[in-house]
Specification:
Elements lengths: L17 E4 L2 E5 L12 E5 L3 E5 L6 H10 L4 E6 L11 H8 L2 E4 L26 E2 L5 E4 L2 E7 L8 E5 L4 E5 L17 H11 L6 E4 L8 H24 L5 H8 L8 H18 L2 E3 L10 E3 L1
Parallel strand pairs: 4-5, 5-6, 6-7, 11-12
Antiparallel strand pairs: 1-2, 2-3, 3-4, 8-9, 9-10, 10-11, 13-14
Length: 300
């Protein structure tokens, strides 16, 4: 496997707002875990009239700390990268407290084909943005402007936001410095995810700020490593199939030899997403008319 240049150490303190650039502050929620790393990083963009990006989970302490940080300022925009439970639920109480307008691609599953959208049951089912943004839209505030960069794959409604004044891209869970991103069907789609990664290679963003973990400064090299990692996973799947290993549950121990046991189900889902892409590419087949994580797969 190729190595991704992860960075897992950075300085922060729960409950304390950090100034990380002239236009950006960050407050990290105390919700660490195997999927959230040290917790959800909520960003405040601008000064005076501000935007809040990914307000986070329903956590009273985090909401209190956020409102203290915003004291004396006006929140004009609440921006959501995607509707997982560690990103969007706090938009509702923050909107009630501030009267700000919420922005996002759409509700959970809204980027899926209409016939499949009802399949996705996870995530924040309540969030529906006041304004549905699309790729290329520009959102402006006092001294800042954000370009909406649609990046489906991790979820079908995943949106990154580029701060034009600083060549910064807020990447949500699309690209993270501490780990790869989980791609879980049906809302997650590996083909779209890789396409969204390739899209970033055509941009000039100089720094990424994900919702979890530290900044990424070697942006192009990091994205290339992310993409290569997915291609390496495909090769691992092909190797397993060539050895007569046809079920994902048997592949995971072969492919992830040092995985945290808590992440084994997520790893199986990611292999399943990779398998769906390989079926689309015509390199893998299954006898199951509706392939699942438990189906048997074969090389074509």
């Amino acid at each position: 496997m190729s190595k991704i240049p992860f960075v897992k150490e950075f300085d922060f303190e729960y409950g304390q707002v950090q100034d990380i650039s002239p236009n950006i502050r960050r407050l990290i929620a105390d919700n660490p875990g195997p999927f959230t790393f040290t917790g959800t990083g909520t960003y405040i963009i601008g000064r005076g009239n501000v935007a809040v990006l990914d307000p986070g989970p329903i956590d009273e302490a985090h909401l209190d700390n956020l409102q203290k940080a915003l004291s004396g300022e006006t929140v004009t925009h609440i921006l959501i990268t995607h509707t997982h439970m560690d990103h969007s639920p706090a938009a509702k109480p923050l909107k009630e407290a501030t009267g700000a307008t919420t922005y996002g691609f759409g509700p959970h599953g809204s980027g899926m084909p209409a016939q499949d959208a009802t399949m996705e049951t996870g995530g924040d089912q309540e969030f529906d943005p006041d304004v549905r943004v699309k790729d290329g839209d520009i959102l402006s505030g006092e001294g800042w402007s954000l370009e909406c960069v649609y990046t489906p794959g991790h979820t079908s409604n995943h949106m990154c936001y580029a701060l034009k004044e600083e060549k910064v891209l807020f990447t949500g869970d699309h690209v993270m410095g501490w780990s790869t991103s989980i791609v879980g069907p049906p809302d997650g789609n590996m083909t779209k995810y890789i396409e969204s990664l390739e899209k970033l290679l055509n941009r000039d963003d100089e720094i990424y700020w994900p919702t979890h973990g530290p900044a990424i400064t070697n942006t192009k090299d990091f994205v290339r490593a992310y993409i290569q990692h997915r291609f390496d996973r495909e090769q691992q799947i092909q190797a397993c199939l060539s050895k007569g290993i046809h079920e994902i549950k048997q592949m995971v121990p072969q492919m992830y030899d040092d995985i945290d046991e808590r992440l084994i189900p997520a790893a199986a889902v990611s292999v399943y997403a990779q398998m769906q892409r390989m079926i689309d590419l015509g390199t893998v087949a299954t006898d199951d008319p509706t392939p699942t994580v438990d189906s048997r797969y074969y090389l074509k």
